[in-house]
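Throughout our pipeline, every protein is held as a single compact record rather than as scattered files. Such a record has a labelled line for the sequence and another for the backbone structure tokens. The remainder of this section carries one protein's record, kept here as part of the documentation:
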Amino acid sequence: MPIGGGIIPATGSTQYTELTYVTRRAFIPKLVVQLYNSTPLMAALIANSQQASGGVSSVTVPVQGAQFVNAQWSDYSGSFNQPSVQQGAFNAEFDLKLMIAPVPFLGMEGAVQQDAAIIPLIEARMNDATNVMMDAMATALYTNYTNTQQFIGLPGAIDDGTNLTTYGNINRSTYTWWKSKVYNAGNVNPTRQNILQYISGTVKRGAEVPTFGVCGFGTWTLLAQDYVGQEQYVITPGNGFDGDANGPQAAFRALMVAGVPIYPDPYCPEGTVYFLNSNYLSL
């Protein structure tokens, strides 16, 4: 008997052919998806998502970019100069974007799979439609600032006017308060010290501490090297490393700098760290 792999005869032998005629296969009734990644940015956006309806400039966000009033020093009399009316409010206006994932379904395919499907193809396609759209959104959020039919991503939203002069119908050259703070770190590895420096600059520019930061896995791993060498293991007295069923914990899921967790995101370009505030971030 020609020997194949495992308990199966060699492919192409008469024994193998005969077995395929009379033997069922052992299927695992699950479709293991190998294509997609999870992303903390999309998780934050979905967590803060809000429903929007149609219209022209369908998403309008009033923003203050200048003082409404001026303060004055006075004396015992309490006198002051007549105040003037100053424009402080502006509208940031964004258009809704449309994404479509067509799902094919053949009638005869349904008839063949009726009561006989191991993996119903229509269910696999419907599940894939969600994954494909999430992948497209996550990709656009880190790369797109030119295609107006797609999401305008972080390169356009968090920008000093280099990539996108007008964002949300507000011109960054005219209204400089609409610019983001962008630092060119140069050819340096990320460390806790320089990440702290950029967080401080972000707070100085934007008045609030960012709620989280994202960067590529390679950049995040370089930052993690600044932590791992400083780790300490605390063991319960009387126990050894093998005395705890969970074992000693090492390394981190998020790297905390000045209270700001830094997460790795597979879609973020290497060498770039974005500091975001989820209080003003939603899908």
About this structure: The mean pLDDT is 88. The first strand starts at residue 59 and ends at 64. Strands lie at 59-64, 89-94, 166-167, 170-171, 212-215, 255-257, 260-264, 273-276.
